[in-house]
Amino acid sequence: MKRHMFFAVPLFTLLLAARSAGGVEVPVVDRIVIEETEEAKALTERKESSYAKTVITKKELEELGGQTAADVLRRLPRIFFSGPPATNKDVRMAGLDKEFQNVLINGNRPPGGGEKREFALDRIPVEDIERIEVLKNPTAAYDSDAVAGIVNIVLKEPPKTQSLSASVSLNYNDLADRFGEKAAASYGDKKGPLGFTIGGVRNREYRGKDKSATDTSKNEREAETEIVRTTTTSANLRLSYEIGENDKITFSPYLTKQSEAKDKVKTVFNLATGAAKNRNNEKEDKDNTLQGYGLEWEHRFRSGSSLKTAASFSENKEDKDKVTAQFTGAGLTFSKNVFENEVKTDRDMVLSADYKTLVSGPFNTEHVLSTGAKYRDKDRDVEKLVYEINSSGAYKLNSTPDDSYSVREKITAFYVMDEASVSDKLVITPGLRVEITDGEYATSGGRQASGDFTDWNPSLHALYKLGGGLQARGSIARTIGRPPFKEKVPTRSVKADKVEEGNPDLSASKSINYEASVEKFVGKTGVVALGAFYKDIDGMIEKKEIGTDTLTGLPVVKPVNVSEAVVKGIEIEAKSGLGFVGLKDFTVNANYSLLDSEVIDPNTGIKRRAKDQPKSVANVVLRYENKGAGLSASVGVNYIGEKIDDSDPTKPRKVEQPFTQWDASFKKSLYKGASVFGSGVNLFAEKKENSDGIKTELEEVGRTFLLGLRYDI
């Protein structure tokens, strides 16, 4: 009953509209009308798409002051990022955890090194990006592992005419009190059948972090300071060659390397006396290198059909070295050094073929039929070594053979989909995607296992144009959330109070996603939208006590597919020029998402909210553009509502207070393509605060400023 009420208004609108649909002249469903600006083109694409899609253009990426894809995505409905304040790495849509997101680069999921299959979006500089597409509910043409949604980053494409862009800038973080620098350049052109673009970015930036925590139950106060130097280097090349009128070959290599050098000091004091109890000095160096190579051939038949085949290879290598010096006692006497080295290597090979054709159906209907196949071969190897040397020089090995492991997964997918224009107002898109997963898992200690599963994932999207720029959308799709890598590996770890094991029999979580919305498009760049979503997730993975270990007598805990969850929300979005109130050079872009969830704990049966899901997310961006003066500027506010974590019934409920971040940016044209630009992030140095009634934490990262020069032709 609650589900029906939740969707009553938007679904009733959609069904009522569908009832009145007639059989009249049929449009081409994927037609995009050419408008005069990038923003107008993006909005037209959103309007005409047979499935819900939001497009972020190069202009928005440049003007909103962000330095990475993550900085811009956080301004969209239902999206936020985990981590310290003003630090955007792992995308979170609808409040779901990292393993439920799907980040793509040029349509394929890149290997990223994360245990939960996540990819940190701060690794892709905005200068490398042509556009970003966000899908809240995928069609059958996309990978099914997208319970929360899909973020597809399209790297720069060859321009139609000569294009050159170069920039240099300085950045400064007041908490780290250090300057960084950035240089970026790209050049592209089209010479007859050959088109190309080549570019590169090198960015070094510093971030400081101060964190304090007070724990009355332990009579302790923790003080933590951290400075991180991040250096990101990328190179992007794209070549396209047209063979006659019907064939096109594209070659797309991409390289990005991100190096982090972290210095952290954590000191614990006696809360009553203020005397130091212990201190850890931590130094960590981490290199993340991603290289990818894609080759694509597209053939267009005279009938209007098209065939696209593609092959790609990508590799991500993460190398982390960390040493922690531990000091204990009132005099903070050196105790030991703990050394950790971890190397993660992920390789993906992808082969795919997609065929699309136009077909006239009965009752004057027109169809765009699509079918395709995709094969993905994934290898993951993790080598981990942890040891310590105490003050006397004694050596102790802390890691076990089960800490190093390998994963081999082969995923074969087939899909069929129909974009059917039932009338000039109604388009429906049914589809079915089948994904077959076959995996092998092993530890360096010799434990081996295999597991496989098959998922049948149907979907249905509907678009109804009510006229006057008003339209309604509805969709239902079955999606999956693949298990974290290590939870599938047959590990065994004996601890003081339990035995923890991996589970190769884990299957993917399954979700039925419902989406509905009503959109009103105003002019070429304005839109107002009201939407709702409901995700019914089954087989979520939770750790559960499953019995007693025969060797040790301890309880055995392992991850199993047992939990159920419902994630739902309502969101409103508005984008409009303010000329109707006399502010013809101003545009406002605002959205508000109200989020809720219900998870059934497998150990206690207690219903609780999903961990780390905020109650609401809101954004307002006010943009100013005066073309005559060559000036554009924006001021934005990002709000993340209260988060509640009561996932562990043995511990007090943890509450994270709302967080508000203010940002600003500007760009001023100088002379013949030259311009100056700048931005400020977290202008009021907002802090993140959370408490469980016993322990209170306060975290801050300060402000970051950027100023630079740019040249475009």
User: pLDDT below 50 for ≥5 consecutive residues: which ranges?
Assistant: 1-35
The name of the CATH architecture is Beta Barrel
Could you tell me the radius of gyration in angstroms?
26 Å
Mean pLDDT across every amino acid position: 89
Distance between the termini: 58 Å
Look at the structure and name the CATH superfamily. Answer: TonB-dependent receptor, beta-barrel domain
Shape: globular
CATH topology: Maltoporin, Chain A
3D architecture notes:
The protein is mostly beta strands and 713 residues long. It has a single domain, classed as TonB-dependent receptor, beta-barrel domain (Maltoporin, Chain A), CATH 2.40.170.20. Helices cover 5% and strands 63% of the residues. The chain contains 5 helices and 36 strands. The strands form 3 sheets. It has a 22-stranded antiparallel beta barrel. A hairpin with a 4-residue loop joins strand 21 and strand 22 (499-501). The longest helix has 12 residues, at 8-19.
